[in-house]
From TrEMBL:
<dbReference type="InterPro" id="IPR050259">
    <property type="entry name" value="SDR"/>
</dbReference>
<dbReference type="Pfam" id="PF13561">
    <property type="entry name" value="adh_short_C2"/>
</dbReference>
<dbReference type="InterPro" id="IPR020904">
    <property type="entry name" value="Sc_DH/Rdtase_CS"/>
</dbReference>
<dbReference type="InterPro" id="IPR036291">
    <property type="entry name" value="NAD(P)-bd_dom_sf"/>
</dbReference>
<dbReference type="InterPro" id="IPR002347">
    <property type="entry name" value="SDR_fam"/>
</dbReference>
<protein>
    <submittedName>
        <fullName>SDR family oxidoreductase</fullName>
    </submittedName>
</protein>
<comment type="similarity">
    <text>Belongs to the short-chain dehydrogenases/reductases (SDR) family.</text>
</comment>
Amino acid sequence: MFLPSFQLINKIALVTGAGRGIGRALAIGLAEAGADVALFARTASDIEEVAHEIRALGRKAYPFTVDVTNREQIEEAVQQIIEHTGRLDILVNNAGMNIRSQALAVTDEEWDTIMQTNLKSAFLCSQIVGRHMQQKEYGRIINIASVAGQVALRTGVVYAATKAAMIQMTKVLALEWGKYGINVNSIGPWYFKTPLTEKILANPDYLAEIIARTPLGRVGELEELVGPAVFFASDAANYVTGQTLFVDGGMTIYGF
């Protein structure tokens, strides 16, 4: 048999920023593939709703209200998950945010907030969960990067810096942790319909510009990110590590 398994039955996954948008879609998608899912977010009501949806699929859900820039909170929650389930197999570092400012207008507070939320949180979660995965000699870490980490976009210099760093962090962690059976990859989305993008996509001129730069001629639907995440989390990606898969409608191949 040559067809590998894409099923995640008996796997335990953790998704950060799981209350809305991409995180919610990925958490539910991993559950649909068979995983039980721990959910991290700052807003309890959001992750409780996602937990309800996952349980309706017949999978277990473990919601935690966590500030993923806080090492102590992450460590405490991860320890609770491991004590309850015995392991953590999959980590999806999705928590992120953006403040759209021209470079000359970026404040120190904006810089620190975006860096901590997007980049520090991904490293802290990877480090803390990675220690457990090292002991188990198995793990799948999936970082949600962005096309902004590969190409230049307007009004997002700090956001772009975090996503470029996340792509490079993916490579370094894959290099260091491959010997422990830990695969580390990232997904780079273009524009998808999320709470983070809904206002800017409501501008018809901006939306037209986005579509014009996208070979497939549209923005993405959230479920179109689930397949790549399930692939990276499954046995189908056993020999894939250190890679970034751009789910972008072809935007990053655009030429003049």
